[in-house]
Each structure stands twice: as C-alpha cells, then as structure tokens.
Amino acid sequence: MGVVVELSVVPLGLGPSVSSLVAEAVKVLEEAGVKLVLTPMCTIFEASTIEEAFKLVAKAHEALFKAGAVRVVTTVKVDDRRDVEHTMERKLDSLKGKL
After folding, report:
1. Domain carrying residue 63
2. Structural domain tally of the chain?
3. Of 9, 12, 97, 98, which cross-links 71 as Cys (Cβ 3.0–4.6 Å)?
4. In the prediction, which pLDDT does 69 show?
C-alpha cells in the first residue's frame, strides 16, 4: 500500500563537491513523477510497490555513472507497510500526534 524510500547516492573519487552528479539521480526521480523530499543528506521518495522502488533506485544509481562517476556508493532504506495507505505525511502526522 505504499513504500517510503530513503536514498543516498555518493560518487567517490571526484573531489569534495558532488552535487552536480547527485542532481542526476534526483532528476531520475523527478522524471518518474514520484513524490520526493530532498534533505541535506539524502532523498526520500514514495513508490507504489517495492518493485517500483528498487527500479528507481537502480536508475538513480546508474545516472551517476552516465554523468561520469567511476565509483558510486548507494545506500537505501525501505519502509514497506501493507496494512494502511503509507506515505511520508502519514508517518510525520503519526509522530506529531504523539508529541
């Protein structure tokens, strides 16, 4: 009923500034039309299924190689909940309701 994904792609060996390559991964998600949130350390996005989530992760990972990276470290965290409609907002609303 919804997958929330935390994605971090890090090209290595290209110097201290890598935002131009990371932007290529974000473009993959934007072009796919998924809802996403950028943070200073990662990108969080929603997918309908686990299959869609991993397909997008693979495309984002490959985008860095296409942009010139020779080594990429990708970290993925998946929250796959199937008993309710699962979204980023629902997770935040649940937490805020308990504060």
Report:
1. 3-98
2. 1
3. 12
4. 93
User: In whole angstroms, what separates CA 53 from the centre of its chain?
Assistant: 8
Structure tokens at 96: 């805020």
Say what the pTM is.
0.90
- Which residue bears the tokens 């919804």? 2
Q: What CATH number corresponds to the domain at position 89?
A: 3.30.70.930
Cα–Cα separations (whole angstroms), residue 20 to 10, 41, 63, 67, 69: 11, 15, 11, 9, 11
CB count within 10 Å of CB 86 equals 16
Taken in order 30, 34, 49, 96, the sign of the CA dihedral is positive
Distance CA 14, CA 16 (A): 7
Instruction: Sort strands 36-38 and 3-11 into parallel, antiparallel or unpaired.
Output: unpaired
pLDDT by residue, tens only, the chain of 99 residues: 689 999 999 999 777 888 999 999 999 999 999 999 999 999 999 999 999 999 999 999 999 999 999 999 999 999 998 888 888 888 988 899 999
